[in-house]
Specification:
Asp/hSer_DH_NAD-bd (chains A, B); sodium (chains A, B); six-stranded parallel sheet; elongated; HDH_cat (chains A, B); about 450 residues; alpha/beta; 3 domains; Dihydrodipicolinate Reductase, domain 2; Rossmann fold; 15 helices; homoserine dehydrogenase activity (chains A, B); Alpha-Beta Plaits; homodimer; six-stranded mixed sheet; metal-binding (chains A, B)
Chain lengths: ~450, ~450
């Protein structure tokens, strides 16, 4: 790489929030290790902040701070580290830096998901590098794996827990039985969720990361509208409990799979069997499982967010730049898989369905809904129910052999006939399921079966 | 790298067993992917086998096979792939290849653990590369991670499930309650264990791999005698059951930790809390957890052995060689941590102890042993017991606040006083444990407590 002064690299940091502070501290604390491994002394020459007056807990030379991006771009600069987030001014400053031949390291998933292809093209044109390990899964080197390791393998599928906020909330809902809204407040207090949590809890953040991973794994440019997206806000604590009784954990999973129609991309809560490598990834941890044709299944896990894990990814990108490792394989985002919006998958699969109702209506609703499902040639693998604090019950089913669309229709029909059924949840189930023994019986015998369910409640 | 013929790389394979066959097939099947990603056509020019007459299931040109290493070394050769295992002739052939400037890729953990430093020095002297990703944890790119990724981070500790045979046996013992010897026979029938399983089940194989990982993580040359080593042959099925009741899984763990006296290295069965990232790695899967100062904890898991996972690691080393990525960071095995043999750790820790006895002797043995332990200022965190098929009981304890040596002494003493106690097991316990409430009481009150244990049995 081109760095003017031998043995010394001049770095500017855009943003001095949690990650920016972590990057600055890591450069100071691990200066000696970086020098020994790369031969370079790292010198921070400027830090772009939003507010010069803000009090900093960091021990930092205030003369480095500026509010003006021009100061950064016109100053002494070899590598720009962008950890401020958001599309602007990040996009403009990064583009300008790359155009002037400076290398850029970014943690900005939204920017890379939306404008990564253009920025990488600018970098290539001007002989600069654009590295973005920190944009996905914090300190887990999954970008490096896809770019530099799995080259002889062909990737068959990716699934990952890509958002630490959601994973923390789901873990706590399962552990404590408390509801989403309450845990979200805890998460905010702990710094695990932002004041406006929409991007995290509605799955946008995970969708950005999935787009970046899919870009690399399939050499494909992804339109974010091709990603089916559903957040975690509709889940009830009872769903976590019911899933556990069925033998599953509920996780927000970003998933890319090859199918006949192209790539199937989604971010949505899924039931994972407890033996699934992602089922035991808890709290703010992230994990990514890659299926590849030769190696089989590889899983990487670690802290997906926070000051130091993300700073680690940034600093490792910096050392890769300094040692020349980043020169290896530029991402090729040329293949366009599918243009336009996401189209629903109509393949038969396995589904978790739950709904609330009054106990006295449970039997009637159950029989009517099951009749509808069994008419669709669905089978039932298992059922569980819990009584809620207000006296209502939440019933749940694992059904298989039927497409999502049919299940969704049956739920709409359920709303109409059993007026007390509310807040239905429909989630995909990973892995094979089999008909439960009792459900091989004809529908007419179900009435008696349902009595036993009511006793359990 | 130096490859004579542009656009084509000539490869010889030493060994055509499970892994060798996988390498050959992968080169054929993924030829197009490799060509696209590296620009090279891979040409297999020779395969060294032990027995030319052996029947091969593989679709292979028999003219490629030879029993004479000289044929390989004097033939057309850019890269030598060694997947035959054992020290000789592998060591000699690899040394000769490196001396003639040929690059070598090896899956040989014993060779790398015992002679890696010399071979890497020969490679360096002759401008050749020696790559060995396949020597540890099959297709999991942990070598690549330590060599090429964690450069700004300082590694603080490594622990891993490094032997698939042992992990399969322990998983099956826990799942079925069947004993070691029986499961070992299953493992042989399934091809998961060799006819002579000593290297696997006694922990030698895992110790080789631990030495290689430690070399890289700490830039240290490791003498295998510095690794405390204990296999899985003494474990009873009841121990897996008891550990489960205490809230733990038992796994054979290779572990390297920095301590005041230098590195503490061991391969031994350990109790891991069920929330530990390695506790849920089952069957023939391997996993490695790396603790580093900036990133925190990273875990990599995948298939640790078998035809294709190991072939994947070999082929990815080959593509790294062809794209120049292997030039990045050569391992530096210069620091010598400790010369001489392993010295036992005397630090207080947490321990699992179990022993068999006749039910009528249980109370007396328990009181005497506990008195000895409590005199040593140990505390008891929990106790569990199971009745065995022959009417004996197996009692187990989690004790803390005491060094391993003291527990070991108490067990020897136990043999003398309670003559019926046999086959005691002592294992380290990961994570913090706390005194169980009832054990804060003075020793004199324990006699009555033990009554309740006998009722439970």
């Amino acid at each position: 790489m081109t760095i003017e002064k031998k043995g010394s690299v001049r770095v500017a940091i855009l943003g001095l929030g949690t990650v920016g502070g972590g990057v600055y501290k890591t450069i100071q604390n691990n200066r000696e290790t970086i020098r020994k491994r790369t031969g370079y002394e790292v010198e921070v020459t400027a830090i772009l902040v939003r507010d010069l007056e803000k009090e900093r807990l960091l021990d930092i030379d205030l003369a480095l701070l500026t509010q003006n991006p021009e100061d950064v771009l016109n100053g002494e600069l070899d590598v720009l580290i962008e950890v401020m987030g958001g599309l602007e001014p990040a996009n403009t400053v990064i583009s300008q830096a790359l155009r002037s031949g400076r290398h850029v390291i970014t943690a900005n998933k939204e920017l890379m998901a939306k404008h990564g292809a253009e920025l990488l093209a600018i970098a290539e044109e001007h002989g600069a590098h654009l590295l973005f390990e920190a944009s996905v899964a914090g300190g887990i080197p999954v970008i490096r794996m896809l770019q530099g390791y799995l080259t002889a393998n062909r990737v068959k599928g990716i699934s990952g827990i890509l958002n630490g906020t959601c994973n923390y909330i789901l873990t706590e809902m399962a552990r404590t039985g408390r509801e989403y809204a309450e845990i979200l407040e805890d998460a905010k207090a702990l710094g695990y969720a932002e004041a406006d949590p929409t991007s995290d809890v509605e799955g946008y953040d995970a969708a950005y990361k999935l787009a970046i991973l899919t870009n690399l794994a399939y050499d494909a440019k992804i339109d974010l509208r091709q990603i089916e997206r559903e957040g975690i806000t509709a889940l009830q604590a009872a769903d976590l409990e019911l899933a556990d009784r069925h033998g599953y954990a509920i996780k927000l999973i970003g998933s890319a799979r090859e199918s006949q129609g192209g790539l199937q991309l989604s971010v949505r809560p899924r039931l994972l069997p407890k033996s699934h490598p992602l089922a035991n990834i808890n709290d703010v941890f992230n994990a990514v499982t890659i299926q590849a044709d030769v190696v089989g299944e590889l899983t990487f896990s670690g802290r997906g967010a926070g000051e130091f894990p993300t700073a680690s990814a940034v600093i490792e990108d910096l050392t890769a730049l300094l040692t020349g490792e980043s020169a290896i394989r530029r991402p090729v985002w040329k293949r366009i898989v599918n243009e336009g919006v996401y189209e629903p998958n109509t393949q038969p699969g396995a589904w978790y369905v739950s709904y609330c109702c009054r106990p006295e209506a449970a039997q009637q609703i159950e029989v009517e809904w099951l009749s509808a499902m069994l008419t669709q040639r669905a089978f039932v693998a298992s059922r569980e129910a819990v009584q809620l604090a207000d006296g209502a019950v939440r019933q749940s089913w694992l059904v298989g052999g039927v497409g999502e669309q049919e299940v969704r229709v049956s739920l709409q029909w359920l709303y109409k006939t059993g007026a007390e059924a509310t807040t239905a949840v429909l989630l995909p189930v990973e892995g094979e399921i089999e008909p439960g023994v009792e459900w091989r019986q004809p529908v007419s015998s179900l009435v008696e079966e349902t009595d036993s369910v009511r006793h359990v409640l």
